[in-house]
Amino acid sequence: MAQDSKIDSTGMITLRIDPNSARGAAVSQFFDEVIFTPLETTKESLFGSINSLKIADDNYVIYDWETKAVLIFTKAGKYVAKINANKIEKDPKVKDQSFYGFNIKKEDGQSLIEISSGKQIYYFDLTAKLVKKVPIVKDKQKDYTNYKKFSDGTVIDQAFLEESGKDSIYYNVSILKDGKRVESYFPYRTADHKGDERWHGGRVYDYGNPDGYLFIKNFYYNIYKLTAKKLSLAYRILFPASNSLPMDYDTNPIYKGKGYDYYEKNRDVFYDLANSYLHFNNLYFQVRNWNWSRDEKKAFIYNLKTTELTSIADIEPDSTSQFLPITDLASQYDFTNKGFHIVTPECFYTSYSSLTLFTAKEQNEDKNRKYNAALTEYFKTQNKKSNPIIIQLKPKKI
User: Fold this and answer.
1) Beta carbons within 8 Å of 328's beta carbon, 6+ residues apart
2) What is d(CA 50, CA 376) in angstroms, rounded to the nearest whole number?
3) Are the C-beta atoms of 169 and 229 separated by less than 8 Å?
4) Helix (H), strand (E) at residue 106
């Protein structure tokens, strides 16, 4: 096995967390402002849910898996345009020209929507007008354009390959500067996971810090800080034994190819630690297990200074949120599946369905709640089948 870089654990903090001890809170305890933006619903703009959300100039750009479309709305929620299969040139040589996401790219100061489909990369402006298309070139030299980067241009590569004949090694996370490797961590061979349905990789989380990301390796309850220089173990979470995977779950061959069976028999065990973000003293994260009970707490805010654990599902609406929920954790699964779409030091963005918002309004009927002009108009003209809502949260600096 190739030599991987040493992980710095000198600053590691151990967090003992019992999800059952998590408490509720009021929206105003964590957020200074909550803005609800209904997305205009027309025959053309109607879509299912927000699978991916990005902000380009003064627009929300959305990918909807159900309709396989990219939709553009203003920050006020006004529908602008849509990119779907009709905007993609048909190629008789390519059977499937569906696209499953997009990137935002800046060229000469202009924001462009980049979509890969078939053998072409298409570039659209923010009115869905095709600007150009270029063929996808299969080059041995990786294109790092859309990779996560640090402010100095250093790149994070989650599939770096160190070629050495039949003994080639991949790394779950590598740091590259000017195309050259600086550090690499968590090596593996493709043969190591052959016949195993479990995904042994990891995820990098962007919390709006240009010089730092968080990284979580699958099947471990560790949260790492990733900089342009190194990977450091920042937090090691100790959950109750009933919620914890065996320490050798990732490496012991007795679990290989038997992940689903194990989860089915151990439904309380957290097989996934995900969606972790750091905002001042608050560490956000989610866990997943085989149970789907609404009573289970699986999304948290842990205050590193006070050690208080808050359940996001139990954050109660108050006047800051116009007495409306900030997530759908109590009724639907958008937040469970996706968490926050965007996290920056200034704002968090999430979303949920019109069904969720109208249901919350109905529960407020006997309380004489007053809503702002945008929501008043929305409730007057829309219904439970209208487009989703974007929720913008301004977090307190605590």
Assistant:
1) 334, 335, 352, 353, 356
2) 23
3) no
4) strand 103-107
CB 25 within 8 A of CB 315: yes
Write the DSSP symbol of residue 345.
S
pTM above threshold 0.85:
yes
Q: Which amino acid is at 226?
A: L
Helices (H) and strands (E) in the chain, counts: 5, 26
| Cα–Cα distance, 214 to 363 (Å, whole number) | 38
CB neighbour class for 363 (10 Å; exposed up to 12, middle 13-18, buried from 19): middle
Tokens 């205050």, located at residue: 303
Asked whether the beta carbons of 394 and 347 are under 8 A apart, the reply is: yes
Half-sphere exposure of 76 (CA within 13 A, CB side): 4
Whether 96 and 88 have beta carbons less than 8 Å apart is answered as no
Give dist(CA 224, CA 226) in Å, integer: 6
Taken in order 116, 190, 258, 239, the sign of the CA dihedral is: negative
**pLDDT tens, position by position, for the chain (398 residues)?**
456 899 999 999 999 999 999 999 999 999 999 999 999 999 999 999 999 999 999 999 999 999 999 999 999 999 999 999 889 888 887 777 789 999 999 999 999 999 999 889 999 999 999 999 999 887 656 788 889 999 999 999 999 998 877 778 999 999 999 989 999 999 999 888 888 889 889 999 999 999 999 999 999 999 999 999 999 999 999 999 999 999 999 999 999 999 999 999 999 999 999 999 999 999 999 999 999 888 899 999 999 999 999 999 999 999 999 999 999 999 899 999 999 999 999 999 999 999 999 999 999 998 989 999 999 999 999 999 999 999 999 999 99
